[in-house]
């Protein structure tokens, strides 16, 4: 029986599409739900076009009451009978209570070489620091923001005339390789690390 994966998004959902497309054939998991915290998330239509169940839990009516928002998330995840959550550009901070319920079963992709640059504006910070290398990380989610065990990383060079946008554009295609590669191993019970670079693609 396949493991059931819910993908949580806030935006265009390009990582969600890469994940969903990867879960076919002998893959040990299938996408059962794409859930967004805004009806405006562009990825919702992409998921619907792929025949995937979608749901929206808008965070705004809940204001500062994160627990109430998360109670609605939990309902949707329960209905979908999800085994694993993949956060894919999901721009809400989750409480420790929610994270702990999914401990060991929730992954995230973050656009930096963790532990560097947790939080936002990662590409600008890598450029400002003069880093020669940047990339992305897939990690298990723990109650420490962007702080859980890293399961895979992909690296690219930072070029002298890079802007945050050009660096993001160089990294995004690797996100689309890394996240499915990590998920496939993770769903197979293998948590050994995946290392990708443009010289070492999957
Ligand atoms: C990705 O760069 C991801 O690393 C970051 O947000 C972006 C989401 O893009 N957290 P998409 O919605 O998957 O296209």
Give an overview of the whole structure:
This protein is α/β, with parallel strands linked by helices and 202 residues long. It has 2 domains: 102 residues, Rossmann fold; 92 residues, 3-Layer(aba) Sandwich (Rossmann fold), CATH 3.40.50. It has an 8-stranded mixed sheet with strand order 3-2-1-4-5-6-7-8, with helices on both faces. Helix 1 runs parallel beside helix 6 and helix 5 packs across helix 6. The longest helix has 24 residues. It is globular, with a radius of gyration of 16 Å. The protein starts with a strand and ends in a 5-residue tail after the last strand. The structure holds 5-O-phosphono-beta-D-ribofuranosylamine. The site of 5-O-phosphono-beta-D-ribofuranosylamine (GRF) has 16 residues, from helix 1, strand 5 and helix 6.
Task: Kindly list the characteristics that best describe this protein.
alpha/beta, Rossmann fold, 6 helices, 23% strand, globular, binds 5-O-phosphono-beta-D-ribofuranosylamine
